[in-house]
Amino acid sequence: MVALPDWMALAPALSLALASLVLLLADSVDPDTTNTGLLAGISVLGSLLSFGFAGWFITAGTGMADSTGVALFNNQLVVDQMALFFMAIVGSVTTLVVLASYDYVAEHSYQAEFFVLVLLSATGMSLLSAANSLATAFVALELVSLPSYALVAFLKENKGSVEAGLKYFLIGAVSSAVLAYGISLVYAATGVLRFDGVATAISSGTVQTIVDGSVQAQAGDPAVPMAILGVGILMIIGGVAFKTASVPFHFWAPEAYEGAPAPISAFLSSASKAAGFVLAFRAFAVAFPIGDLLAAGGAINWVMAFQILAIATMFIGNFAAATQETVKRMLAYSSVGHAGYVLIGLAAVSGSGEGLSLSMSAGMSHLLVYGFMNTGAFLFIALAEYWGVGRRFEDYNGLGREAPVACAAMTVFLFSLAGLPIGGGFFSKFYLFQATLNVSAWSLAAALIINSALSLFYYSRVVKAMWIEEPTGSRTIESYPMGLYTAVVGAALVTVLLLPGFNRVSEIAFQAAQLL
Amino acid sequence: MSNPWIAIGALAVVALAIPLTMMAVSSLLRPSVPEQGKRTTYESGEVPTGSSRQIKFNIQYYMVALLFVVFDIETVFIFPWTVIYSDAAAEFGMTTALLPMVVFIAILAIGLGWAWRNGAVQWVRSPRATKGADTYE
């Protein structure tokens, strides 16, 4: 096999960026184009290419020969198995979303802009997966966020969409500021921004500096001020909580997901959440190793913080979802609840930092499965919006008779989200459960079980409405849009296939987490 | 060696003295012709609408300001690059030194070209912004 140059390791991110530039060029050639097929085609091609590269690199074992992965640009970016795993999630979700958007944006103006913004945001997510320094991570995070603010407000004639966009933007700006301040405090305390440098500073207790790309102690061996470091880490937790829609920064999520066009809700709740989590996993596993942090005087016990956040997020998300009247808002709150499940990945760790690779790989696997089932569920909502079906549970009554294939797919998504053994969601939740038992975190295990049982109640309300209830009003479905159907059915197929295929996923995730 | 802070103090004095002198001299020399156009808020030659407390500019000015930022950032990166370019080209070869900047500028050019084609720099005059402004233009 030909050995590719090192920079090619970024191919998953580069193909997304390239596709967005090609889209801009296509739109420059003909600004008034309504050729949705061409625009969506370029986008699907770019995101499929990204997914393909990520999948190829994972199977080819890129970045496994070296313990640090493929380091680029003076270690600012590192492509290892974990980065590739998340690049694959981003690539797959983006493919589904742009495929489904083909029908959704067909009647809107500014189609090219829509696809360009989705792809630019996806580029940011892909880069964030590989970011190995707080500064790079921040820039990538902004590249994720800025297009998504515009995308939420894409339906600019629709007041709900504009309001959601503004709320999302304001909360996002505040949490970006919090994150930037946290980063500056960590930098002030440790003297470095690179994750491995921060880790060295914490374990050695002295301020570090980077000379010619290698981390060294600063002259005079000044000690790391642990209190400042602790405040910085706390603020970084806040920034991560916003991006992943976890308590206490979750309240933008229901608003933004409800107001945004449904494919964008799918994109934000799956890919954007995954991007937030990859930052959290890498930063907390590599830069702030819990064992060293506690040994060095215990600036902050972030495992404890994540345990509280995980339990609070699970309960608040799921209980709020159970009381909703509209399906999209219910899914939005359930997505908050799922952020709580994935947070177990950073919470189910023993006091000395053991069990981190197991719990993190469980979180990663859940994110991958969730990427398909949650995207699929939101895309079904997009389908319902396309047909003009109402927003409430009752409006879905009897939909199963008119669109059996799509409703069967939706049933798979919902039961898989609840954790029934009909899709990969069963095994990923079980894996998370194992991770909690591994370190005897009984409260996390109990919260996981209680909330999964509760979620079954509200997910089955939709299923009951679709299949059992009689249709209330007259409703005619005139067309069965190709792109949306392909995306929904494809996502359902993968969700089911992840049932037998979960073993492989969890193996890759475990290996990736161990390599960190 | 005298205290280097003296130079900084002198700079501050000069910085204050120049504008004060200019204002004083021009107030002695100029004829006084009060006029509405001279009292409006000035921002890059844009005519504001509304009262002086809530000044509103034509929204297209915002697009131009955004495009300005593109060139601004470009300058920030090009200046240090030009300074080290010949050394870098001698040490690492021309491709390594030149190509990244070409890619960077190409990305900006694609964005600018797109904005141009989509009418971001096309100046449409809104009747509200130009109302009453024609009297002193």
TrEMBL record, chain A:
Lineage: Archaea, Methanobacteriati, Methanobacteriota, Stenosarchaea group, Halobacteria
Protein name as catalogued: Oxidoreductase
This protein's record includes keyword Isomerase: no
Any matching Pfam family: Proton_antipo_M
Keywords for the protein's UniProt record, in alphabetical order: Membrane, Transmembrane, Transmembrane helix
Coiled-coil segments on the chain, per record: none
HAMAP family for the chain: NDH1_NuoN_1
Subcellular location: Membrane
Primary location group: membrane
Listed transmembrane segments: 6-26, 38-58, 82-102, 114-131, 137-156, 168-189, 223-242, 274-296, 302-323, 330-351, 363-384, 405-427, 439-459, 480-502
Membrane is among the record's keywords: yes
A cellular-component GO term for this protein: membrane
UniProt membrane topology term: Multi-pass membrane protein
TrEMBL record, chain B:
Presence of keyword Iron: no
Coarse class of the protein's main subcellular location: membrane
Positions of transmembrane segments: 6-29, 61-85, 97-116
GO molecular function, one term: oxidoreductase activity, acting on NAD(P)H
InterPro entries referenced in this protein's UniProt entry, alphabetically: NAD(P)H_OxRDtase_bac/plastid, NADH_UbQ/plastoQ_OxRdtase_su3, NDAH_ubi_oxred_su3_sf
Membrane topology (UniProt): Multi-pass membrane protein
Coiled-coil portions: none
Gene Ontology CC: NADH dehydrogenase complex
Top-rank taxon: Archaea
Compartment list: Membrane
Alphabetical UniProt keywords: Membrane, Transmembrane, Transmembrane helix, Transport
Family assignment from sequence similarity: Belongs to the complex I subunit 3 family.
Protein name per UniProt: NADH-quinone oxidoreductase subunit A
Source organism of the structure: Haloarcula argentinensis
